[in-house]
Design brief:
Layout: H1 2-26, E1 32-33, E2 63-65, E3 68-72, E4 76-77, E5 80-81, E6 89-93, E7 98-104, E8 110-118, E9 126-130, E10 137-141, E11 151-159, E12 164-170, E13 183-192, E14 222-224, E15 239-240, E16 246-250, E17 261-264, E18 273-278, E19 284-292, E20 303-308, E21 311-316, E22 325-333, E23 338-345, E24 349-350, E25 358-359, E26 362-370, H2 374-396
Antiparallel strand pairs: 1-13, 2-7, 3-6, 4-5, 6-13, 7-12, 8-11, 8-13, 9-10, 9-12, 14-16, 15-18, 16-17, 17-26, 18-23, 19-22, 19-26, 20-21, 20-23, 24-25
The chain binds 2-acetamido-2-deoxy-beta-D-glucopyranose (NAG) (5 copies).
One 2-acetamido-2-deoxy-beta-D-glucopyranose binds near residues 128, 130, 137, 138 and 170.
């Protein structure tokens, strides 16, 4: 008997080990930094300022094509110090150059890539991020620098079309000065899941807790650029429908009303997040949300324009020494089975300490629910009736 118990425990352990080993062997990717995603691993020939040739495998774990250069913090060029977002190394992509890394993915799953980027000398620098064989790609415009540090983190999401893929970063530019071109650092990937819709709230991911990877020790948040497809959003449920980005912030570096994450709206009307929520036509609803400041010395006043169906309300944040946020609501009557809710910042705010980093009001905990209690009481009575009926049937059987 004892033997059998031990035997079964042992077989459980064996099974567990086999599963873990298989997973390991399959190279199932872990959420977080890609292998040498921070470009800090020393190449076999040592770090050097020499440009890497075509098809070179000189950057450990990455493939490159075109002029790809490992740069070092403090490195100067034409009197200008190159920006290395984190650590002491990053890569720079010359005209039409690209780097890529193969990653294991799960077919059909949604992934978000997070990376840091800075521009060097050209004004119109941009990056083309893609993940073949998935046909999706996004061009990230690096013209607007959102933070005074000179670099930002961005996220982009895609659906895996196969069990593997490549993360590709390409500089589509053709500058006269071939040494111009974007700098990339800290590449991470995260498998996203779509949160379940809560019963009492029509908004998906209204607390913004599910979204792109954020490094625990990077303090600038992550910019979410334009993305009109809610099926492949780095912020599940939401779209960024403006041509400028909004900032995804964490509670380790910013004031967040609830949970660990929230959205900071930037650039006035040029930074809009929205979601289509399910509603019942002609019913009264109430949208409530938290409105606050991010604790980043953003110059007041802070205000949002909040939209719910045909209602739009301009709501000012009232500074309160005891709290970093307040709650606000918008009442509306649904006109259709899907209702748009959206937010943008009323003002163009910058930080009062550096006068140039973009900042703005924080939105969190967005809820849309039928207003008034009558419906839920009726619902409860209905539920009781149904349970009673089921019990009755069981007794009969
Ligand atoms: C490098 O890129 C060029 C054009 O962008 C392409 O023709 C060539 O096949 C690529 N080389 C490798 C090794 O991928
Ligand atoms: C990015 O590059 C891919 C492959 O070269 C191309 O098909 C795609 O159109 C580019 N995307 C954008 C948004 O420029
Ligand atoms: C952030 O953490 C990673 C490992 O988690 C480390 O390699 C890196 O040096 C850290 N960066 C900073 C700026 O502390
Ligand atoms: C902050 O809290 C203190 C003590 O609870 C209270 O006396 C004060 O009025 C509050 N201040 C504001 C602005 O609400
Ligand atoms: C919305 O309706 C609720 C009652 O259902 C009321 O308490 C609240 O003040 C209303 N909000 C606004 C902004 O009118």
């Amino acid at each position: 008997m004892r033997r059998m118990v031990w035997g079964s425990t042992r077989s459980k352990w064996v099974t567990l080990c086999v599963i873990l080993l298989l997973r390991f062997a399959a190279g199932q990717i872990q959420d977080g930094l890609l292998i040498n995603g921070d470009f800090e691993t020393q190449p076999s020939g040592g770090f050097s300022n020499e440009k890497l040739g075509d098809g070179s495998a000189a950057i450990p774990n990455w493939k490159s094509n075109g002029t790809v250069e490992l740069i070092e913090s403090g490195q100067k060029q034409g009197g200008m110090i190159l920006i290395v977002p984190q650590g002491s190394h990053a890569v720079r992509l010359g005209n039409d150059a690209e780097i890529s890394q193969e990653v294991r993915l799960e077919k059909g799953a949604l992934y978000a890539v997070t990376f840091s980027a800075a521009r060097t000398c050209a004004q119109l620098e941009s990056l083309n991020v893609s993940a073949p064989p998935s046909g999706a790609s996004q061009s990230i415009d690096l013209q607007t620098v959102y933070s005074v540090q000179g670099w930002d983190s961005y996220a982009w999401a895609f659906e895996a079309e196969d069990d593997g893929g490549r993360m590709v970063f390409r500089n589509p530019g053709m500058e006269d000065d071939p040494t111009c071109g974007p700098v990339i650092d800290d590449v991470a990937v995260k498998k996203l899941f779509t949160p379940e819709k809560p019963k009492d709230n029509a908004v998906l991911n209204g607390d913004f807790e599910e979204g792109a990877w954020m490094f625990r020790n990077e303090s600038l948040g992550v910019l979410l650029p334009t993305n009109l497809d809610d099926e492949t959003s780095a912020l599940p449920g939401w779209i960024v429908e403006s041509n400028r980005a909004v900032r995804y912030i964490d509670s380790y570096h910013f004031a967040v009303p609830q949970g660990k994450r929230a959205i900071e709206l930037l650039s006035g009307k040029e930074g809009i997040i929205s979601q289509m929520v399910q509603t019942t036509p002609n019913k009264p609803y109430r949208m409530s949300f938290s409105l606050g400041h991010a604790g980043d010395s953003c110059k007041q006043p802070l205000a949002v324009m909040a939209f719910a169906g045909d209602q739009a309300q301009n709501i000012h944040y009232t500074p309160n020494a005891n709290s970093t946020f307040q709650t606000a609501d918008v009442n509306f009557t649904a006109k259709a089975e899907r209702t748009r809710v959206a937010f943008y910042s009323v003002y163009y705010n910058t930080r009062s300490d550096d006068m140039s980093s973009l900042c703005g009001p924080v939105v969190d905990d967005v809820r849309v629910a039928l207003s008034g209690a009558s419906r839920s009481v009726l619902g409860r009575v209905g539920w009781l009736l149904v349970s009673g009926f089921v019990l009755f049937c069981l007794v009969l059987v």
